[in-house]
Amino acid sequence: MAGTTGSSGPAEECDVLIIGGGPAGSTAAALLAKRGHRVVVAEKDRHPRFHIGESLLPANLPLFERLGIADEIRAIGMVKRGVQFVSPWHENISQTFAFKDAWDKTMPYAYQVRRSEFDKVLLHNAARSGAIVHEGCRVRSVVDAPADAGALVHADDGSETGRTWHARYVMDASGRDTFMGNREHMKYRNPRHNSASLYAHFRGAIRQEGEAEGDISIFWFQHG
Ligand SMILES: Cc1cc2nc3c(=O)[nH]c(=O)nc-3n(C[C@H](O)[C@H](O)[C@H](O)COP(=O)(O)OP(=O)(O)OC[C@H]3O[C@@H](n4cnc5c(N)ncnc54)[C@H](O)[C@@H]3O)c2cc1C
């Protein structure tokens, strides 16, 4: 059933409207589109765009194969074979764990990637797989469609009226923006996991040598 929001004319139909074209949204979009569903991705930014979170884990590799992008990721990635933990508070100041020594030997490495490049590969793959991707398109509202028939999603794409979709399903892949969580007032602080995260980038940092050059180093401070 087609719906209207009043402000932007008739809604376009789709099976799944995905809010956000980061790794989660792009991956879901590609897999769903390959199964024949009508998928729309609304991404507020335009790729390539900066994002934090460059150090991947080995279990991503089978997923890249499944998505058909293993070669593209190999071309932009730096091989990461393990994790070095450094702690002046423990007997072994530095200890490295190699992924090849893990219980499961099928995933001996991962990659370090520039997220701008990585996310772009994933989003382009979603489009190549059949999803309709709208960049520069920020979802503003999600309301229940009449007669319990999915949802009406309105997005601002810079045009006067914006765009509206009537979607059978809506997937919130908006990352830290937590679009639906905010809308539904579902977010609360976990008192037992009171952590914070911050980042910086450095020039001229010295890498480890040889095969360890892509390893991630994790430092232990007195407080954890
Ligand atoms: C400091 C820090 C370091 C990290 N380091 C690592 C790491 O080393 N390795 C690792 O694997 N992970 C790391 N992460 C986590 C990683 O960044 C996330 O897990 C990952 O980006 C989540 O992907 P996602 O697709 O769920 O969300 P995102 O990558 O955040 O993508 C969400 C997308 O939704 C879009 N969006 C948001 N709101 C709307 C809207 N209303 N309408 C349309 N589009 C919208 C955004 O523009 C964005 O492109 C780190 C995170 C932080 C904060």
User: How many strands in all?
Assistant: 11
Low-confidence stretches: 1-6
Q: Which architecture of the domain at 12-77 and 109-183 would the CATH scheme give at its second level?
A: 3-Layer(bba) Sandwich
CATH topology of the domain at 12-77 and 109-183: FAD/NAD(P)-binding domain
CATH superfamily of the domain at 12-77 and 109-183: FAD/NAD(P)-binding domain
User: Which radius of gyration do the C-alpha atoms yield?
Assistant: 21 Å
Please provide the ordered H/E string of secondary-structure elements.
EHEHHEEEEHEEEEHE
Structural class: alpha/beta
Q: Could you name the CATH class of the domain at 12-77 and 109-183?
A: Alpha Beta
Q: Which descriptor suits the 3D outline? A: globular
Describe this structure in words.
The protein has 224 residues and is an alpha/beta fold. It has a domain at 12-77 and 109-183: 3-Layer(bba) Sandwich (FAD/NAD(P)-binding domain). Helix content is 21%, strand content 27%. The chain is built from 5 helices and 11 strands. The strands form 3 sheets. The protein has a 6-stranded mixed β-sheet with strand order 7-2-1-10-9-8, covered by helices on one side. Helix 1 packs parallel to helix 4. The chain is globular, with a radius of gyration of 21 Å. Residues 1-6 have low confidence and may be disordered. It binds flavin-adenine dinucleotide. Flavin-adenine dinucleotide is lined by residues 19-25, 42-45, 51-56, 138-139, 173-177, 179, 197, 199.
